[in-house]
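Table S2 (continued). Query chain:
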Amino acid sequence: MNILVINGPNLNILGKRDSSQYGSVTLPEIETKISEKARSLKVTVEFFQSNHEGGIIDYIQSATSDASGIIINPGALTHYGLSLRDALVDSNLPVVEVHLSNIHGREQFRRDSVMSSICIGQIAGLGWKGYIQGLESVVSHINSQEQ
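Corresponding output:
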């Protein structure tokens, strides 16, 4: 089982961004923690980050044939990335949406996700640990579908 872990705009500068919202852990550190959890779940993970919606879409279109599920933190694309949403739908894979901060407790424009209705779940506000829960959730979902 191979899970894609996709991060959108500005997530490449975690650790330098507003730590009160995003924590102090860097994206490579989060990826290491996800990889450790993936090993314990006996799954593989592939990481991708881009600041460009088209780059993320290109990646989804090229990588999903060898994948079983997706964990995505779309960043600001959460609120308006309709072409990204379409690419996720077209992948025909289960998707878990992850946010480091609690988007529902922030500015009004951050509270709406165009992704959430096509995802099997959304995890927000748990910092880097949300990725771990996302991985556990998508793997559990895939395993339950195979039985």
